Task: structure prediction
Amino acid sequence: MSIVEKTANRLIHEKSPYLLQHAYNPVDWYPWGDEAFKKAQAEDKPVFLSVGYSTCHWCHVMENESFEDEQVARVLREGFIAVKVDKEERPDIDAVYMEVTQTLTGGGGWPMTVIMTPDQKPFFAGTYFPKTSGYGRHGIIDILREVNSRWKADRDGLESIGDALISRLSVSHEFENIEPTNALMRQAYKYFDKAFDERDGGFGRAPKFPSPHNLMFLLRYGIHENVPRAIAMAEKTLEQMFRGGMYDHIGGGFSRYSVDARWEIPHFEKMLYDNALLTITYLEAYQLTGRELYRHVAENTLAYITREMTGPDGEFYSAQDADSDGREGLYYVWKPEEIRQILGSNDGTYWSGWYGMTKHGNFEGDNIPTLLNNLNYADVNTRIRQLNEKLLAYRSTRVKLHKDDKALTSWNSMMIAAFATAYTTLGKPEYLQSAKNAELFVRQKLTDSAGNLRVSYRDGVAQGSGFLDDYAYFTWALLTLFDASGEAPYLESAIAHAEAMTRLFADEKGGGFYMYSHNAESLITRPKETYDGAVPSGNSVAAFNLRKLAAITGSREWEDVSLRQLEFMAAQTGGFPASHSFSNIAMMTALYPQINLICAVSSADDIEQLRDSRARKFLPELTTVLITPENSKSLRRIIPPAADYTQIEREPTFYLCRDNTCSMPFTGFANLEEAFEQM
Result:
């Protein structure tokens, strides 16, 4: 018998990097599924559910302390059926039981620990637990023994807790739909204004998360309402995030969050979705202000994604770990003498001074490079850039970070949107090609034969039936690609996926979209997420997409569907619209004047000049339809009125409408740019 057969548990047959990390634990893990729950039913044992993800630092800690421990494993084997779930592959399970955890404890996070009956009724929940009790924290062994004792002595009491909890969670949170108003936008802005950290940027106290969608909202609010402070708050936050240690000054890209208020000390894991949304936000800030700093950050972030997070078929990987050699941040930190050895005395001293390196360090005796004490941080410093390239080459020889190399449809879609936006803003063809490559990967590897999206792909296998987020984010990616390229198949695919989203997830009675489809596995509740957390909710992105489709197609049907979704989202803000920033962005398309531009052109030079003209000014309310000899036949089929938009005297011709009022068609890029400047 092989070593694998002796030591591996059932997770060895899974594709998830997170589940595979636990495949050699002495815990008798099951993946989520009928086998585990039937076993629990047959043996009359409660189910111990552990949810996390592969680059989660505290998930590693709990594994090392408890799940690799024979004593803990024995207690779990004797009294429980243990189930392990990757939250990124099963966001539905994560969402349902995170609501349970928050209801029972008032907080949440990962690793998430839930104990339930064999019929999935939860009665205990928490997050990280050490192996043994102490310092006011309950240990997992004591918890398991107490639960096991109560399971035998008071089974009915635990069942009652589960019944009551499910009843509470199942109570409808629906509100009567209302029309969105400017007052909701002002209320959101006032919250950010009050919570803003004047010294360090960001909102509230530590820990600080980037939440790019909040900054995207503030940029738009500042423009629409002529409130310079809204833009200034977003800029201050973008600057301070760049200056701090959350930004990787050597290799580009951002860590998950800052543990302190100054953005100095990061939680070092890098997530694909953060870097996608932050790239878009820095590009928007660059377009609005023209500041090269923002362009530099966006380009370096995309360079990091291209170098370290892109697979052989153009797909994007999910995350990089915070830990190497068992220590958080080891891959990213430096000592001054190490820098001088690599760069030489003069360059090493110069670089160390630029990034605030000290003998004592700012993180466990080592240094995280930051620009927090450097007043010249915005300078274009060729010398520093060259030295960073040397340090990046050296750093790549260190112990490699664990990489979660599964490709998720929703996260890939965000990065497709980021690369397409980068092409539209900066004009580098390789950005558009990266977006196209990843879109093709989703179409070929993450779509089944019937055209339905899957959730994840790894090691040659696609898994899971697509959730709302997969359809909403992929539709966004397709619309962004259509905007960048003008190629009609992207619009056609966006419409098809929006129609599928409506068919699979829509709540025809209460409005909005459920998280999982009507033909998916049923859980104890069917959530309808509207809150924007680390990423915008699927409902928020759906609202944005539907508004964009209405603007592009001119379809009364899409207009009606989009307005219903906006009214649903307006009602869901629950008196706290600041937690629904991407919904607010969608609502702005109905509250503020929108610009519709149809361009009839005939050459590649015209297309590039149009891209350049659009890039000169940040116009978030602009929707563009490009008509070329190559796409005109397809567009006439998708958008019948497109046949009416032709060139005047074979010149590039522009049809411009603003707030339901259209000007006479005109020619000449100078006239187009003048029209943009007047907006």
Remarks:
- The first strand starts at residue 29 and ends at 31.
- The first helix runs from residue 3 to 7.
- The chain has a mean pLDDT of 94.
- DSSP finds 26 helices and 20 strands in the chain.
